């Protein structure tokens, strides 16, 4: 009945937000047609980035961590390699890499305007028998 459609981010600088996702994570940009708006595709998912609506001024984002939609999670095969590649591109890794539980490790990347992206490496658990 329901299917995932998109994530919509509002940004004071939509161009910088779009550049963050294209440069660091390989999101593909599609022209949107309206000034200040960006349409990106990341692993087949739609990410819309727009400026603040002048009729409904936006407040700055809350501090991390917070209640509500807190971060965007991206899966990776090799967390250490992903973090090294992102650091080489100038990314700010704010948490990790760290073991977060049996079979998974994580790290967090801080983006423009406090947007957080979690990198998650899942490893299958093996039965010792």
UniProtKB/TrEMBL annotation:
Pfam family, one: Glyoxalase
Domain VOC positions: 3-122
Species for this entry: Paeniroseomonas aquatica
Keyword set, alphabetical order: Metal-binding
Transmembrane segments: none
Entries under Gene3D superfamilies matching the protein: 2,3-Dihydroxybiphenyl 1,2-Dioxygenase, domain 1 (3.10.180.10)
Protein name (record): VOC family protein
InterPro entries in alphabetical order: Glyas_Bleomycin-R_OHBP_Dase, Glyas_Fos-R_dOase_dom, MMCE/EMCE_epimerase, VOC_core
């Amino acid at each position: 009945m329901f299917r995932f459609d998109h994530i919509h981010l509002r940004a004071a600088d939509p161009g910088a937000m779009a550049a963050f996702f294209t440069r660091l994570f390989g999101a593909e940009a599609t022209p949107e047609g309206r000034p200040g708006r960006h349409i990106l595709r990341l692993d087949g998912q739609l990410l819309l980035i727009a400026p603040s609506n002048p009729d409904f001024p936006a407040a700055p984002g809350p501090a991390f961590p917070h209640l509500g939609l807190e971060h965007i999670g991206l899966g990776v095969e090799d967390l250490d390699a992903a973090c090294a590649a992102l650091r080489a591109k100038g990314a700010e890794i704010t948490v990790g890499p760290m073991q977060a539980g049996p079979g998974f490790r994580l790290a967090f990347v801080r983006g423009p305007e406090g947007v957080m992206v979690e990198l998650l490496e899942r490893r299958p658990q093996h039965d010792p028998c």
